[in-house]
Design goal:
The chain is of the alpha+beta class. It contains nine helices and six strands, in the order αββααββαββααααα. Strand 1 and strand 2 form a beta hairpin. The termini are far apart. The relative contact order is 0.10.
Amino acid sequence: MDTYCIERGTLFDNQALSTLEYPNEHTIHCLVDVGSCTSSGFEVLADPASSGGLHCRAYVMDSAGTSTTIAAARAVGSCSTCTGAGSQVKGYRATIQGTVSGTGSPLPITVTAVLDESVGCGSSGNDIPAELNCKQGGLDKWYYAHGSLMLIGWGLLLPVGVILAKCLKHREGALWFQLHRGIQCFGLVLALAGWIIALDKFEVLDNTEGHDDSFDSNYSHAIMGCVTMAIGLLQPLNALIRPDAPEPGEDGTCLRSIWEVVHKGLGYVALILAVLTISVGTTLLPKIDDQERFQIAYGCIGGLLLITLILVLVDKYTYHAAPQGSDVDPNQEDGKQTDVELTGKVGTACVEPTPVA
């Protein structure tokens, strides 16, 4: 069994099944075609002591042993990268020979041979460690952290920042710019934290040479995520070099026009990619219940974005700026007066005397 499916807690090719309960349902396609599985390394599982028990983790193979096992499985299996005329679809079993090369649970083993299951271990019998590791699903907390950070960052905050930049320019005092800058920076920080978790904890992009990643939605998700983050991280950098905005009544420079097209265009592309990446990501969580929870949460976020857009558009078409020349500054708090300089012509007035009775 590959370590990736063990740490998921469910089979990647059948998410309704617990990995250590149903390893016989694990397809050879998933075992040797999918980069997420092959790059994580392989482990040897022990048969359960009783019917219905867990197939606990006995040994973890070295990298050479994993490569040898992949080649052996491809020789007998039916899959995209299989090399023989084999017909086995799932439940790959083999006789593994090797020497224990360290301590821990599961025990590390240096594999010397990968033989057919029928060969067996001879008179020595199966050498199963006294201490077995029956834990699975170790990546759950990292999936939740990564998904939550990306959902809040790319799903909510960054789109809100774009909506405000697009639809709030009617407000005085460059309010849209202050909100846009603050929200985008905060959203990008959350997304960056989620990206770091993915790069550190998930081995999707590691050692995918020779694998059929066209079947690996994890790989597609990772590539789209990296492109989205690269664009997102470029946005504050190109904001630092933006040409000065034109004064009121002046035409913008050519450089300013080009910068605006590039900055806005990259922002819209990143948001579209984010929608696709998050949508795929919600289908990759190990447990189906968690997939549904994240999909419902993303749907609620979509509703919040729609409400935000409607409110901002209503404000745009109903808001009236204070008339020019008013002695109340719209940027000041209500009721506060601003100093107004009045100029006028000083003259004299003549009033006829009124008769006194």
